[in-house]
Design brief:
4 domains; globular; binds adenosine-5'-triphosphate; Sigma_54_int_dom_ATP-bd_2; Rossmann fold; 5-stranded antiparallel sheet; alpha/beta; transcription; Helicase, Ruva Protein, domain 3; Beta-Lactamase
Length: 438
C-alpha cells in the first residue's frame, strides 16, 4: 500500500471516533485528523506548525520537556495504549482532555499513533461559574482519578478538609458515570438521629406509626439507578453503622412498617473530613463498614496544596458573586490572599471574596479591601480554631484533669522546692500537696 492510500485508510479509521482524533508520527507531526477534530479545531491549515505539542499546548518542544507526561512516548516505549489527562488549548479556551494514545505500524513497519481526545466536561480549566475549577497538577491528578473511577461502579471514599470540594467531586464522579442521567442524592449524615435514620433513608409505608397518613419515599429509593452520596459518613453513630453496612452488603432495604425488602440499585460515594482509620482504631467506626465504603479512596488536595489555582478560582468566584460588572483583584490583593492558611479551603475563599465585594468602592479590588475583609473575621475565626483545637484535645481523651497532671509533672521536674512550686502554680502549698496526692 502506498503512504497516500495508507493515510486515506487511516482517515477512515479516525472518522470512526466520535471524539476529535489525530494520527501522529514518531517526530510528533500530526499527519491526519478526523472530521470531529476538523469541526472543533478547524483542521491543520492556518497553523505555523503541525507538531502535536504546538497544536495542543502552544509549546515549542515536546510535552515531557515541559514537565508533562507525553502519551506518545509512553505508548512508544510500552508498545501499548497510554491514557493521560492534559489541559489543551481549544477555541473555547483551556480544556481538560482525557487522551488515549494507541500505537500502530504501517506496511513498512513505521510506527504511528492514534490520539483520541475526549473532552472532560465535569470540570473546567477556565473561570466558569458552578463548575469544579482548577488547572494545577494536584487538581489534574484528582480529575484523572475521578474520570477513571467514574467509569466503574466502585464504592468511593472522598477524604479531605472542610470546604475542599468533596461534594463537588462526588457530583463529578456521578456525571462521569453511566448513571449520569439518573438521580444524585445526598444524605447529610451529621444530623441523623436514631429516629430519623431509618425513615429518612428507607422511608415508611402508610400506617407504619401514628401520624403516618401517607407513605414516604426514602433517600435510598430516590437514588434508584443513580448515585447515593453519604456526606460526613464519619458522623453516623456507631450503633447505626450496622444498618448502613446491611444496606451496602445486601443492596436491599425495608421501609419502616413494610414487611417486604426492596432491592436498591445505587452507586455509593461517601465523604468525610475525619480520619476513619483512626476512628476504627479507637473503636468509633466499624472496621467492616470502613472496608466496604473505602474500596477506592480519593484524597482531595487542600487549597494551599494547589495554590496555583488561586487566580483562576478568584476569577470564577467573582463571576459568580457579581455577573453584571467584571470584577478583578490587583496583584497585591492576590499576593495577600495567597499567603492565607485557608483552613476552610474554597468555601473560606468564597466568603472572603463575598465580603470584599460588599466592601469595595471600585471594580478593581485592592489589597486594602482584602485586608479589611480578612480583618472582619479574626475574632470568630480565632475562636473557632481555638475551639477546634480544644475539641481535638477532648477527642484524644485529653481532659482538664490530664492537662493539670501534665502541668504538675512538668512543674515538679523543674522545681523541687514545693513552696516555690506552689507560688509558680498560683495556689497554696496545701492545694499543691492535695493535687500531687491525687
Ligand atoms: N474546585 C472547585 N472549584 C470551584 N468551586 C469549588 C471547588 N471546590 C470547592 N468549591 C466551592 O467551595 C464550596 C465548598 O465545596 P464543597 O461543599 O464541595 O466542599 P466539601 O469538602 O464537601 O465541604 P464540607 O466538608 O464542609 O461539606 C462550594 O461552594 C463549592 O462550590
Amino acid at each position: 500500500m502506498t503512504t497516500a492510500s495508507w493515510l486515506k485508510t487511516m482517515r477512515n479509521v479516525l472518522d470512526s471516533y466520535s471524539y476529535p482524533a489525530v494520527l501522529i508520527d514518531v517526530d510528533y507531526n500530526v499527519v491526519a485528523t478526523n472530521k470531529s477534530y476538523d469541526f472543533r479545531f478547524g483542521g491543520l491549515s492556518g497553523h505555523r506548525s503541525a507538531k502535536c505539542y504546538f497544536l495542543s499546548h502552544g509549546y515549542q518542544r515536546p510535552c515531557d520537556l515541559e514537565g508533562e507526561t507525553c502519551p506518545m512516548q509512553e505508548a512508544r516505549y510500552s508498545g501499548q495504549r497510554a491514557s493521560v489527562l492534559h489541559i489543551h488549548n481549544t477555541p473555547q479556551g483551556k480544556e481538560h482532555v482525557g487522551i488515549d494514545t494507541i500505537p500502530i505500524t504501517d506496511d513498512s513497519e513505521q510506527t504511528y499513533f492514534i490520539e483520541v481526545m475526549k473532552p472532560i466536561r465535569e470540570v473546567s480549566a477556565e473561570p466558569i461559574a458552578n463548575k469544579m475549577i482548577g488547572r494545577s497538577r494536584a487538581f489534574n491528578e484528582l480529575v484523572e482519578l475521578i474520570q477513571r473511577v467514574g467509569r466503574t461502579d466502585t464504592n468511593v471514599l472522598l477524604m479531605g478538609a472542610s470546604g475542599a470540594g468533596k461534594e463537588l467531586a462526588a457530583q463529578a464522579i456521578h456525571s462521569a458515570s453511566s448513571r449520569a442521567n439518573m438521580p444524585f442524592v445526598t444524605v447529610e449524615c451529621s444530623g441523623l438521629t436514631d429516629s430519623l435514620f431509618e425513615s429518612e433513608l428507607f422511608g415508611h409505608v402508610r400506617g407504619a406509626f401514628t401520624g403516618a397518613t401517607h407513605s414516604r419515599t426514602g433517600l435510598v429509593q430516590s437514588a434508584q439507578g443513580g448515585t447515593l452520596f453519604l456526606d460526613e459518613v464519619g458522623d453516623v453513630p456507631l450503633h447505626l453503622q450496622v444498618k448502613l453496612l446491611r444496606l451496602i452488603e445486601t443492596k436491599t432495604f425495608r421501609s419502616v412498617g413494610d414487611t417486604k425488602p426492596t432491592a436498591a440499585d445505587f452507586r455509593l460515594v461517601c465523604a468525610t473530613h475525619k480520619s476513619l482509620s483512626d476512628m476504627v482504631e479507637n473503636g468509633e467506626f466499624r472496621e467492616d463498614l470502613y472496608h466496604r465504603i473505602s474500596t477506592f479512596p480519593i484524597r482531595l488536595p487542600s487549597l494551599t496544596d494547589r495554590i496555583e489555582d488561586l487566580p483562576l478560582l478568584v476569577e470564577s468566584i467573582l463571576m459568580r458573586i457579581e455577573d453584571k460588572v467584571p470584577l478583578k483583584l490587583t496583584e497585591e490583593a492576590l499576593e495577600l490572599l495567597a499567603r492565607q492558611p485557608f483552613k476552610g479551603n474554597v468555601r473560606e475563599l468564597k466568603n472572603i471574596l463575598e465580603r470584599a465585594v460588599v466592601l469595595r468602592n471600585e471594580d478593581v479590588i485592592g489589597r486594602d479591601v482584602i485586608q479589611r475583609s480578612l480583618d472582619l473575621l479574626p475574632v470568630t475565626q480565632a475562636k473557632n480554631s481555638n475551639l477546634n483545637s480544644l475539641r481535638q484535645l477532648a477527642e484524644q481523651g485529653i481532659s482538664l484533669e490530664i492537662l493539670e497532671q501534665r502541668y504538675l509533672k512538668e512543674l515538679m521536674s523543674v522545681c523541687a522546692d514545693k513552696t516555690q512550686a506552689a507560688d509558680i502554680a498560683g495556689c497554696s502549698l496545701r492545694t499543691l500537696y492535695r493535687k500531687l496526692n491525687q
